[in-house]
Amino acid sequence: MIGYKYYDSLNEVWKYKDLSQSEQSTYINPIDINLLEKALSSKQNRYDTNVQRVQNAITDIQSKIWSLSFSDNTKTTINARFKNETLHYINSKKFDYSSNSMTNQVVNYLYSEVKTIENEESSTATPKNENLYEVPKKNVPEKNEALDFLKYRGGYKISQVSEYSFENKNWVLTQTDVGQNLFYYAGNYLYFKRGNNSWLDRKLDFKVYNSYTQTYYYNTPYGDVVISEDFKVVTLYDGNINNCSKKYEFIIEAFDKNIYPN
Q1: 87 three-class SS
Q2: d(Cα 168, Cα 228) in Å, to the nearest integer?
Q3: Alpha helix (H) residue ranges in the chain
Q4: What residue ranges of the chain have pLDDT lower than 50?
Q5: I need a surface site. Which of 3, 213, 225, 250 has the fewest CB within 10 A?
Q6: Rg of the chain over all Cα atoms, to the nearest angstrom
Q7: How many whole angstroms separate alpha carbon 220 and alpha carbon 223?
Protein backbone atom coordinates (compact mmCIF):
# COMPACT_ATOMS: atom_id res chain seq x y z
CA MET A 1 0.00 0.00 0.00
CA ILE A 2 1.31 3.39 -1.06
CA GLY A 3 0.36 6.60 0.72
CA TYR A 4 1.27 9.31 3.16
CA LYS A 5 0.18 10.88 6.45
CA TYR A 6 -1.09 14.44 6.75
CA TYR A 7 -2.45 16.56 9.59
CA ASP A 8 -6.10 17.69 9.47
CA SER A 9 -5.89 21.01 11.32
CA LEU A 10 -9.67 21.45 11.30
CA ASN A 11 -10.28 18.26 13.26
CA GLU A 12 -6.83 18.24 14.86
CA VAL A 13 -6.11 14.65 13.87
CA TRP A 14 -3.60 12.81 11.70
CA LYS A 15 -5.00 11.11 8.58
CA TYR A 16 -3.66 8.77 5.93
CA LYS A 17 -3.99 9.22 2.09
CA ASP A 18 -3.97 5.94 0.10
CA LEU A 19 -2.50 6.75 -3.37
CA SER A 20 -2.78 3.26 -4.87
CA GLN A 21 -6.61 3.27 -4.97
CA SER A 22 -6.74 6.82 -6.27
CA GLU A 23 -4.46 6.02 -9.22
CA GLN A 24 -6.38 2.88 -10.14
CA SER A 25 -9.74 4.65 -10.15
CA THR A 26 -8.61 7.53 -12.39
CA TYR A 27 -6.92 5.54 -15.15
CA ILE A 28 -8.03 6.57 -18.67
CA ASN A 29 -7.41 4.64 -21.87
CA PRO A 30 -5.19 6.59 -24.26
CA ILE A 31 -6.75 8.09 -27.44
CA ASP A 32 -5.79 6.46 -30.73
CA ILE A 33 -4.39 9.59 -32.40
CA ASN A 34 -3.78 7.81 -35.74
CA LEU A 35 -7.38 6.61 -35.96
CA LEU A 36 -8.68 10.06 -35.06
CA GLU A 37 -6.52 11.71 -37.73
CA LYS A 38 -7.72 9.24 -40.37
CA ALA A 39 -11.38 9.94 -39.50
CA LEU A 40 -10.90 13.70 -39.66
CA SER A 41 -8.98 13.41 -42.92
CA SER A 42 -11.74 11.29 -44.49
CA LYS A 43 -14.40 13.81 -43.46
CA GLN A 44 -12.35 16.70 -44.85
CA ASN A 45 -11.88 14.89 -48.16
CA ARG A 46 -15.63 14.30 -48.47
CA TYR A 47 -16.25 17.95 -47.65
CA ASP A 48 -13.80 19.20 -50.30
CA THR A 49 -15.17 16.80 -52.94
CA ASN A 50 -18.80 17.73 -52.28
CA VAL A 51 -18.14 21.47 -52.23
CA GLN A 52 -16.58 21.03 -55.67
CA ARG A 53 -19.67 19.08 -56.79
CA VAL A 54 -21.89 22.00 -55.80
CA GLN A 55 -19.58 24.48 -57.54
CA ASN A 56 -19.57 22.32 -60.70
CA ALA A 57 -23.39 22.26 -60.64
CA ILE A 58 -23.53 26.06 -60.36
CA THR A 59 -21.09 26.46 -63.25
CA ASP A 60 -23.08 24.00 -65.36
CA ILE A 61 -26.37 25.76 -64.62
CA GLN A 62 -25.04 29.21 -65.48
CA SER A 63 -23.51 27.88 -68.68
CA LYS A 64 -26.88 26.42 -69.69
CA ILE A 65 -28.65 29.68 -68.88
CA TRP A 66 -26.49 31.58 -71.36
CA SER A 67 -27.07 28.92 -74.02
CA LEU A 68 -30.86 29.38 -73.93
CA SER A 69 -32.48 30.62 -77.11
CA PHE A 70 -33.90 33.77 -75.52
CA SER A 71 -32.93 37.39 -75.67
CA ASP A 72 -29.93 38.57 -73.68
CA ASN A 73 -32.25 40.54 -71.39
CA THR A 74 -34.23 37.42 -70.51
CA LYS A 75 -31.10 35.36 -69.91
CA THR A 76 -29.67 38.14 -67.75
CA THR A 77 -32.86 38.16 -65.67
CA ILE A 78 -32.81 34.38 -65.23
CA ASN A 79 -29.16 34.43 -64.20
CA ALA A 80 -29.71 37.33 -61.79
CA ARG A 81 -32.65 35.59 -60.12
CA PHE A 82 -30.64 32.38 -59.84
CA LYS A 83 -27.88 34.25 -58.02
CA ASN A 84 -30.05 36.54 -55.91
CA GLU A 85 -32.66 33.95 -54.93
CA THR A 86 -31.28 30.42 -55.19
CA LEU A 87 -27.60 30.96 -54.44
CA HIS A 88 -28.38 33.54 -51.76
CA TYR A 89 -30.52 30.95 -49.97
CA ILE A 90 -27.84 28.24 -50.29
CA ASN A 91 -25.13 30.57 -48.98
CA SER A 92 -27.27 31.63 -46.04
CA LYS A 93 -27.45 28.05 -44.75
CA LYS A 94 -24.75 25.99 -43.03
CA PHE A 95 -25.11 22.71 -44.89
CA ASP A 96 -22.91 19.77 -43.88
CA TYR A 97 -21.11 19.12 -47.17
CA SER A 98 -19.23 16.23 -45.61
CA SER A 99 -22.55 14.39 -45.99
CA ASN A 100 -23.12 12.92 -49.46
CA SER A 101 -26.89 12.78 -49.00
CA MET A 102 -27.05 16.46 -47.98
CA THR A 103 -24.92 17.43 -50.98
CA ASN A 104 -27.27 15.49 -53.28
CA GLN A 105 -30.21 17.45 -51.87
CA VAL A 106 -28.43 20.76 -52.46
CA VAL A 107 -27.52 19.89 -56.07
CA ASN A 108 -31.08 18.73 -56.81
CA TYR A 109 -32.42 21.93 -55.27
CA LEU A 110 -30.21 24.08 -57.52
CA TYR A 111 -31.43 22.41 -60.72
CA SER A 112 -35.06 22.39 -59.57
CA GLU A 113 -35.05 26.08 -58.66
CA VAL A 114 -33.42 27.29 -61.86
CA LYS A 115 -35.98 25.28 -63.86
CA THR A 116 -38.77 27.08 -61.99
CA ILE A 117 -37.16 30.45 -62.71
CA GLU A 118 -36.77 29.59 -66.40
CA ASN A 119 -40.42 28.52 -66.61
CA GLU A 120 -41.59 31.81 -65.13
CA GLU A 121 -39.31 34.08 -67.14
CA SER A 122 -39.65 32.23 -70.45
CA SER A 123 -43.45 32.25 -70.40
CA THR A 124 -43.45 35.74 -71.91
CA ALA A 125 -39.99 35.76 -73.48
CA THR A 126 -39.36 35.82 -77.21
CA PRO A 127 -36.71 33.36 -78.47
CA LYS A 128 -33.70 35.31 -79.73
CA ASN A 129 -33.66 33.85 -83.25
CA GLU A 130 -37.39 33.29 -83.64
CA ASN A 131 -39.03 34.35 -86.92
CA LEU A 132 -41.86 36.51 -85.66
CA TYR A 133 -43.77 35.97 -88.89
CA GLU A 134 -43.84 32.20 -88.50
CA VAL A 135 -45.36 30.85 -85.30
CA PRO A 136 -43.93 27.45 -84.26
CA LYS A 137 -46.46 24.64 -84.57
CA LYS A 138 -46.57 23.92 -80.84
CA ASN A 139 -47.24 27.57 -80.03
CA VAL A 140 -50.34 27.94 -82.19
CA PRO A 141 -53.08 29.31 -79.88
CA GLU A 142 -55.77 27.41 -81.83
CA LYS A 143 -54.34 24.09 -80.59
CA ASN A 144 -57.06 22.08 -78.88
CA GLU A 145 -55.62 21.63 -75.42
CA ALA A 146 -58.57 19.50 -74.29
CA LEU A 147 -57.37 16.71 -76.58
CA ASP A 148 -53.89 16.76 -75.04
CA PHE A 149 -55.24 16.40 -71.50
CA LEU A 150 -58.18 14.15 -72.33
CA LYS A 151 -56.56 11.14 -70.63
CA TYR A 152 -56.10 13.16 -67.42
CA ARG A 153 -59.76 14.00 -66.87
CA GLY A 154 -60.92 13.11 -63.38
CA GLY A 155 -60.11 13.51 -59.69
CA TYR A 156 -56.73 13.54 -57.97
CA LYS A 157 -55.23 13.76 -54.53
CA ILE A 158 -52.75 16.59 -53.98
CA SER A 159 -49.51 15.71 -52.21
CA GLN A 160 -48.56 19.34 -51.54
CA VAL A 161 -49.69 22.91 -52.11
CA SER A 162 -46.97 25.56 -51.98
CA GLU A 163 -47.99 29.20 -51.56
CA TYR A 164 -45.70 31.96 -52.85
CA SER A 165 -45.72 35.73 -52.41
CA PHE A 166 -44.04 38.09 -54.88
CA GLU A 167 -41.76 40.34 -52.83
CA ASN A 168 -38.91 42.56 -54.01
CA LYS A 169 -39.12 41.10 -57.53
CA ASN A 170 -38.78 37.53 -56.23
CA TRP A 171 -41.19 34.69 -55.52
CA VAL A 172 -40.88 33.78 -51.84
CA LEU A 173 -42.28 30.55 -50.40
CA THR A 174 -44.64 31.54 -47.56
CA GLN A 175 -46.48 28.33 -46.73
CA THR A 176 -46.54 24.62 -47.57
CA ASP A 177 -49.75 22.66 -47.12
CA VAL A 178 -49.68 18.85 -47.08
CA GLY A 179 -53.22 18.42 -45.77
CA GLN A 180 -56.29 16.88 -47.37
CA ASN A 181 -56.30 18.76 -50.69
CA LEU A 182 -58.22 17.57 -53.75
CA PHE A 183 -58.21 18.41 -57.46
CA TYR A 184 -60.48 17.66 -60.41
CA TYR A 185 -59.80 18.34 -64.09
CA ALA A 186 -62.77 18.56 -66.45
CA GLY A 187 -61.28 19.88 -69.70
CA ASN A 188 -62.56 23.44 -69.84
CA TYR A 189 -62.77 23.69 -66.05
CA LEU A 190 -60.58 22.76 -63.12
CA TYR A 191 -61.79 22.38 -59.56
CA PHE A 192 -59.79 22.37 -56.34
CA LYS A 193 -60.54 21.92 -52.64
CA ARG A 194 -58.30 22.97 -49.72
CA GLY A 195 -58.88 21.03 -46.51
CA ASN A 196 -62.46 21.47 -45.22
CA ASN A 197 -63.17 24.44 -47.48
CA SER A 198 -65.69 24.30 -50.31
CA TRP A 199 -64.79 23.35 -53.88
CA LEU A 200 -63.64 26.28 -56.05
CA ASP A 201 -63.37 26.34 -59.83
CA ARG A 202 -61.68 28.17 -62.69
CA LYS A 203 -62.91 28.22 -66.27
CA LEU A 204 -59.94 27.66 -68.56
CA ASP A 205 -59.37 29.77 -71.67
CA PHE A 206 -56.36 28.34 -73.53
CA LYS A 207 -53.68 30.93 -74.29
CA VAL A 208 -50.49 29.24 -75.50
CA TYR A 209 -48.32 26.14 -75.28
CA ASN A 210 -44.64 26.74 -74.45
CA SER A 211 -42.55 24.04 -76.15
CA TYR A 212 -39.43 24.98 -74.17
CA THR A 213 -40.97 24.64 -70.70
CA GLN A 214 -43.49 22.03 -71.89
CA THR A 215 -46.31 23.83 -70.16
CA TYR A 216 -49.79 25.05 -71.10
CA TYR A 217 -50.90 28.60 -70.26
CA TYR A 218 -54.54 29.57 -69.64
CA ASN A 219 -56.51 32.71 -68.87
CA THR A 220 -59.24 32.48 -66.23
CA PRO A 221 -61.52 35.11 -64.66
CA TYR A 222 -59.49 34.85 -61.42
CA GLY A 223 -55.95 34.71 -62.79
CA ASP A 224 -53.62 32.75 -65.05
CA VAL A 225 -53.13 28.99 -64.77
CA VAL A 226 -50.08 27.00 -65.88
CA ILE A 227 -50.22 23.20 -66.30
CA SER A 228 -47.18 21.03 -66.97
CA GLU A 229 -47.41 18.74 -69.99
CA ASP A 230 -47.02 15.62 -67.81
CA PHE A 231 -49.88 16.86 -65.59
CA LYS A 232 -47.71 16.72 -62.47
CA VAL A 233 -47.77 20.42 -61.51
CA VAL A 234 -50.61 22.95 -61.74
CA THR A 235 -49.88 26.57 -60.78
CA LEU A 236 -52.66 29.05 -60.06
CA TYR A 237 -51.92 32.79 -60.09
CA ASP A 238 -54.12 35.41 -58.39
CA GLY A 239 -53.94 37.62 -61.47
CA ASN A 240 -51.96 38.08 -64.67
CA ILE A 241 -48.76 36.05 -64.48
CA ASN A 242 -46.68 39.20 -65.04
CA ASN A 243 -48.50 41.35 -62.52
CA CYS A 244 -49.70 39.48 -59.45
CA SER A 245 -48.67 39.03 -55.84
CA LYS A 246 -49.50 35.39 -55.11
CA LYS A 247 -49.36 31.97 -56.72
CA TYR A 248 -50.28 28.46 -55.58
CA GLU A 249 -48.41 25.41 -56.83
CA PHE A 250 -50.36 22.13 -56.70
CA ILE A 251 -48.37 18.88 -56.89
CA ILE A 252 -50.65 16.29 -58.48
CA GLU A 253 -50.47 12.85 -56.88
CA ALA A 254 -52.62 9.75 -57.50
CA PHE A 255 -55.76 9.52 -59.63
CA ASP A 256 -58.84 8.71 -57.57
CA LYS A 257 -62.11 7.82 -59.28
CA ASN A 258 -64.02 8.63 -56.07
CA ILE A 259 -63.01 12.30 -56.12
CA TYR A 260 -65.65 14.55 -57.65
CA PRO A 261 -66.62 18.17 -56.90
CA ASN A 262 -69.97 18.65 -55.18
Answers
A1: helix
A2: 26
A3: 19-25, 33-66, 72-81, 88-92, 100-122, 145-148
A4: 22-25, 127-144, 146-147
A5: 3
A6: 31
A7: 5
